[in-house]
Design goal:
Number of helices: 6
CATH architecture: 3-Layer(aba) Sandwich
Strand order of the largest sheet: 5-4-3-6-7-8-9
Structural class: alpha/beta
Order of helices and strands: HHEEHEHEHEEHEEE
Number of strands: 9
Helix content: 25-40%
Distance between the termini: 41 Å
Strand content: 25-35%
CATH superfamily: Vaccinia Virus protein VP39
Length: 216
């Protein structure tokens, strides 16, 4: 399979028609090799307009959702970022290309370990993968300039919004299937504003059971 041609086709046929036009986002999608972050038996689906199963109930967003999230968060190189749901590590790598440092929290230890290896192999040095319940946030490094929720939630927890800096942004997909809303939250000194970007449907983020306890 010609991955470079498939990458080009993804950008031109999926992303640009969906109004992903930010040059910085498109450049990073060329640089960070998506095929290196998908499971080996799914490499031919690396650029397909679909979720990719990672096991343990986790999945990767379709490429256009990843790109739209990056474009919406509009990160700057000096900013610190929190990601909820590391998965394969691909979204963390994309975030890291736009930020100073990324803390990514994954609830499944096996996925966290695999993501660390994927990021190491890709030469990404400004992402730290923690194991834990990301929906509680990561207070040790808060507040954050941007938060990316890499999986759908019924509603964004207040704990995450409270860990945003004034001027901070949070991207999440909220609601119930079959209709969910991709939303961008923006925090200011006077409160938090929510803007609906589009409707979609993706898998819910894995959540901790009442008996699970994590220490950050």
């Amino acid at each position: 399979m010609n991955f470079e041609q498939a990458r080009f086709n993804m950008i031109e046929q999926q992303l640009r028609p969906w109004k992903i036009l930010d040059a910085g986002v498109l450049d990073v999608l060329h640089v960070v090799k998506r095929e290196e972050f998908v499971p080996p038996d799914h490499k031919r689906l690396a650029f397909a307009d679909t979720e990719i199963a990672l096991g343990h109930g986790a999945s990767m967003f379709p490429p256009k959702l990843e790109a739209h999230a990056l474009q919406s968060l509009a990160m700057k190189k000096h900013e610190n970022v929190l990601e909820i749901g590391t998965g394969s590590g691909y979204m963390a790598a994309l975030l890291g290309a736009h930020a100073d440092h990324v803390w990514s929290v994954e609830i499944v230890p096996e996925l966290a370990a695999a993501a660390r290896e994927n990021l190491r192999r890709a030469g990404v040095s400004n992402v730290t993968v923690e194991t834990g319940d990301g929906l509680a946030g990561l207070a040790a490094h808060a507040p954050y300039d941007a938060i990316m929720v890499s999986g759908a939630v019924h509603q964004v927890p207040k704990a995450l919004l409270d860990q945003l800096k004034p001027g901070g942004r949070l991207f999440a997909i909220e609601g119930e299937a079959p209709v969910m809303e991709a939303a961008l939250y923006s925090r200011s000194e006077s409160g938090t504003r929510r803007v609906v970007l589009f409707e979609t449907e993706v898998a819910l983020l894995r959540e901790a059971s009442p008996t699970q306890k994590f220490v950050f």
